[in-house]
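Async update (no meeting this week)

Hi team, since we skipped the sync, here's where things stand on the single-chain job. The sequence we agreed to prioritize is pasted below, unchanged from the tracker. I ran it this morning and attached the output directly underneath so nobody has to dig for it. Comments welcome in thread, and please keep replies under the output.
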Amino acid sequence: MKKPRLYLIKKPHPSGSDAHDPTTIQPHVSARLRHPRQSDPTRNIFTVNPDVDAPTLLTNASQNLAMLKVMSTDLTAKLEGRHRNVAVAMHRLAVLAEMLVNQALENIGSPGSRGKPTGH
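Output:
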């Protein structure tokens, strides 16, 4: 099944020959594609202080992933069919990422631990 194309209509109600005039209808293109050299504004909303140590960053990442896990579990319970399958896949990716971050924390010795990395 083809995806519908989105068009930006400059005039609220094109009529007659104006309805198919290419100057009145333009394919919708994201701002990022129109201006690829311009910085992405969503990347500039949040920044991470480069002076924060790795264990603190990993602890925060682990907590964020845990929250994502809970939200994706709630979402999965409310969906059915292929949308549910997508939510389950997102949940599994969050679980895997949390496991990787937690293992990295263990390997470097998280704050509050005795500082002994657990080499496996």
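Quick observations from my side:
Confidence is low (pLDDT under 50) at residues 114-120.
Helices lie at 31-34, 54-78, 81-108.
Reply here if anything looks off.
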